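FORM 12-B: Structure-to-Sequence Request
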């Protein structure tokens, strides 16, 4: 009986450590992405940064905290806010994120074009 309880406890601990690993993985990606976005927005000036976050929240219902969970919507919002200039902002975010993840990260796009949302998903899956 005691040995069965120990096995159940060990199994539960393994399941929790896997869950904990997933939470840490998601948390670190979310923080890295939020930091990269914030740095790019800040590079445009504090007033512009605040205006961008306000527009994302009020017009597109995307808070700063939501960005990593709403990547597609965030990308669409940036492109609607800035037109073709939105692509330049996305490129800067990818560059900042790459600096944070490090040179061990490699991205092989599925197509010839670099796609922001695919790049972010690749970064997310590469973080241990």
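FORM 12-B RESPONSE
SEQUENCE OUT:
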């Amino acid at each position: 009986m005691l040995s069965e309880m120990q096995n159940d406890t060990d199994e539960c601990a393994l399941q929790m450590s896997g869950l904990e690993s997933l939470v840490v993985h998601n948390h670190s990606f979310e923080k890295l992405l939020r930091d990269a976005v914030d740095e790019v927005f800040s590079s445009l000036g504090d007033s512009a940064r605040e205006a961008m976050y306000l527009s994302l929240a009020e017009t597109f219902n995307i808070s700063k905290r939501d960005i990593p969970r709403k990547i597609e919507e965030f990308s669409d919002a940036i492109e609607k806010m800035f037109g073709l200039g939105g692509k330049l902002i996305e490129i800067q975010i990818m560059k900042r994120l790459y600096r944070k993840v490090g040179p061990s990260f490699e991205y092989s796009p599925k197509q010839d074009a670099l796609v922001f949302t695919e790049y972010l998903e690749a970064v997310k899956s590469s973080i241990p």
